[in-house]
Specification:
By secondary structure, the protein is an alpha+beta fold. The protein has a single domain, classed as Immunoglobulin-like. It is about 25% helix and about 45% strand. The strands form 2 sheets. Strands 1, 2, 3, 4, 7 and 10 form a 6-stranded mixed β-sheet that branches.
């Protein structure tokens, strides 16, 4: 009986380790734009969940969506530009999914997000707490 119990515990530990590795593997690679690290993606439920969980470690999380057939749907392909307080372009990248995590230092920024030739702007202030910004196209 002790051998079966030990086997069951070992099997459970192995499955737990595989699950943790699987979830971590779903986070897209870190990219860089002008020296600023970012992650973008969220296509697929597992990847989206992994990015949302990872967002707690990043200063800025963008969530991108649009109105389609009367309901909000996630998008990919939006162009994201970020300007610093002096209006200097410091970040320029394309979103590969509905989420983008950006590693900005504390300060004031202007986000310019373009999708299907429609630009939206958001003024943000990054502090020591992670911030989520929703950008929604109609």
């Amino acid at each position: 009986m002790k051998l079966i119990n030990l086997f069951a515990k070992s099997l459970l530990a192995g499955f737990t380790l595989m699950w943790v590795c699987f979830v971590q593997a779903q986070i897209p690679d870190t990219n860089y734009s002008q020296g600023i690290s970012y992650i973008t993606g969220g296509v697929g439920e597992e990847e989206a969940q992994a990015i949302v969980a990872e967002a707690k470690q990043w200063p800025l999380m963008l969530e991108l969506s649009q109105l389609e057939n009367g309901r909000g749907v996630w998008i990919f392909g939006a162009k994201i530009k970020i300007l610093n307080a002096r209006k200097k372009l410091i970040f320029d990248a394309q979103a590969d999914g509905p989420y983008m995590l950006v590693n900005l230092t504390q300060g004031d920024y202007l986000i310019e997000a373009s999708y299907q030739n429609v630009m939206q702007k958001r003024a943000i202030n990054i502090t020591s707490s992670p911030q989520k910004v929703n950008i929604f196209w109609k």
